[in-house]
Amino acid sequence: MSKELVSSIDIEAPAEQVWKVLVDFPAFPSWNPFITSAEGLLEVGGRLTLVMQPARGAAVKLRPTLVEMVEGHRLRWVGRIGVRGLFDAEHLFVVETRGAAGSRLLQQEQFSGLLVPFLSRSLDRGTLPAFRAMNAALKNRAEKASAARA
Fold it and tell me: DSSP readout, 7-58?
């Protein structure tokens, strides 16, 4: 069984500014309502330590592995809870240029494993709204930084 969550948002700031906000892990506690803490090196094969706060429920500490890093454009990690095949997740961020000074942020996660059918409603009610909250907060932060530079 698998499940996919997707959320995107258009941002009135250049893709470079959006990327800066997305990869500034030390600043996450000050603005990010979903990934409230993020540590680790942004290099393929590196382990990250993330604290994720769903819209409903308790925060979860995860240690995913970074599997893709395309500077300025894509960031992807994979992680699991328990053993492989129980509850696996692949998280992806894509930053795209839109127009002369705009961009779009896509946040997507693919879940698979035996527990997915039992956690599907929780993902819809807790995780997807948290994606949307993070996207909105990132938009706000990137647009303010872009306006301050102008």
Answer: EEEEESS-HHHHHHHHH-GGGHHHH-SSEEEEES--STT-B-EEEE--SSS-
